[in-house]
Design brief:
It contains 19 helices and no strands. With about 475 residues, it is mainly alpha-helical. The chain has 2 domains: about 5-180, no CATH class; about 185-460, no CATH class. Helix 3 packs parallel to helix 5 (about 120-135), helix 10 (about 220-250) crosses helix 15 (about 350-370) and helix 10 (about 220-250) runs parallel beside helix 17 (about 395-415).
Length: about 475
Amino acid sequence: MLFSSITFLYYFLPLVLILYYAVPNKLKNTVLLIFSLVFYGWGEPKLLLLMALTILIGYISAVVMAKTDRKGLKKTVFIVSITVIFAFLAYFKYASFFVRNFAAITGISAPVLNIALPIGISFYTFQIISYVIDVYWGREKCENNLIDFAAYVSMFPQLIAGPIVRYSDISLQMKERKFSSENLYLGFRRFVYGLAKKVLIANAFGALCSDFRGADAKSVAFYWVYAIAFTLQIYFDFSAYSDMAIGLGKILGFDFIENFNYPYISKSITEFWRRWHMSLSSWFRDYVYIPLGGNRVSVARHIFNIAVVWMLTGFWHGAEWNFIIWGIYFAIFLMLEKYVFKNVMEKIPSVIRHIAVMTVIVISFVIFNANGLSGAVSDISAMLGLSGFPLWSSETAYFIRSYAVMLAVGVVGCLPVVKKTFVKAERFTVIRVLEPIVLVALLLVSTAYLVDGSYNPFLYFRF
């Protein structure tokens, strides 16, 4: 079920909120759990069994580790539970990849594995893993109430595409939440703005990317327009989902962590990854990078740590070589920043640094969105003028004219100036009075687009 769907907006969500607010506080987690399971199992009910089993393993292992004084048993339970949980992820997400590549390397014929990828498995797996690790390390108390723990893992606002909410972030909120008309309004506002970003902006860039793929008269310039359009699409698409998730969480009484902080204003790749998909970046930092030794090691080991983390980051996104290359691509630029250009970057004008960083990012998302490794090579070759395409074409001019306003909106929308202007404008009474009207208008316009349109995927659902 999509947030940006009529079923969710006008049937599922109203029913959830009516029952959620009607029951006493002690039953709210039960209501949340039931509807979260309905939400997740809407398209494929049998996938609920996998998620339920993963939840049980995480819950039971944490309880056992918390109650035993035997270090050997605690370590064994930890290793077994982590291994089994990762094995589920490896089988459903990566088995086909490994079998396919094994056959290609060895020449041995292998069966084609048609394994359906459970939606959101990467997100809820990482949430459970972080919880089990925190309990094992003694950084978090175990949750003895199975309903509360299951409600945390399966919570529908952030279940499918994040942000990756750690139990330590909301453990207290699982027991006691504050409800107010102010939070209800702030949550509704954040959700509607996110919905509008998704339906009115991200989907428009998605349509441009789709038109590009179907176009006959391509050019070098057209490839760059496509690359920029996808860079804008993935930002507005993913950040819109995070906005809606955070807004829904606020409505339900939760304060979820932010996941984006204007990443396209970054002047270094390091800064970009402090602003982009922050919940994932911090997860790999705390559970992989720091345990490997972080940067408090030799230069060679530090380079190894960066390479491992970013290869895993790329592989987390998908079981294709272009995702692995995408992760390694960022690892290379991070290493260059730390060890080659460290003393040079600050001397370069900020505008030049920003242009350079955005060029790196745009090319990275071409790799990310390519049809496999060969597709990535083909697209980048075309962008560099190595594929025989003309520099310009009439079709390129047509698409630029058609999408000029949307491209301008997208570029401006990536900048904090919009939010800063809005915050300043809120001081005026007329703006505060008009805002609810604007929100309702955005909801109605978004609904009209959903009724009329057909292109409405969430890009991160496939991860």
